[in-house]
Amino acid sequence: MAESALYERIQGIRRRYPSSLSAVMPALQLAQAEHGGWLPPEAFREVADALDLTPAYCLSIASFYDMFRLEPAGETVVEVCTNVSCALAGAQQVVEAFEEELGLQAGETAEDGSFTLRTVECLGGCGWATIVAIDNRHRLHVQASDVPGIVAELRGEGGDGDA
Amino acid sequence: MATPEVVFAGTNGGALTDIADYEAAGGFTALAKARAMTPDEVIAQLNDSQLRGRGGAFFPTGRKWSFVPKPDKLPKPHYLVVNADESEPGTFKDREIMLRVPFRFLEGCLIAAHAIESKHVFVYIRGEYEREFEVLRDSLDAMRKQKLLGSVTIVLHRGAGAYICGEETALLESLEGRRGQPRTKPPFPAIAGLYAAPTAVNNVESIATATQVIALGGDAYAKLGVENSTGTRVFSLSGDVVNGGNYELPHGFPLKDLIYDVGGGIAGGRKLKAVIPGGSSTVILTAEEAERATLDFDSLTSLGTAIGSAAVIAIDDRCCMVQLGIRVSQFYEHESCGKCTPCRVGTHWLTQILQKIEDGRAAQPDLDLLLDVCDRILGKCLCPLGDSDAIAVASYVNKFRTEFQEHIDRGGCPLGGGSSLEGILAPVAMHAHTEHPVADREAVPA
Question: What is the DSSP letter of A68?
Answer without folding.
Answer: S
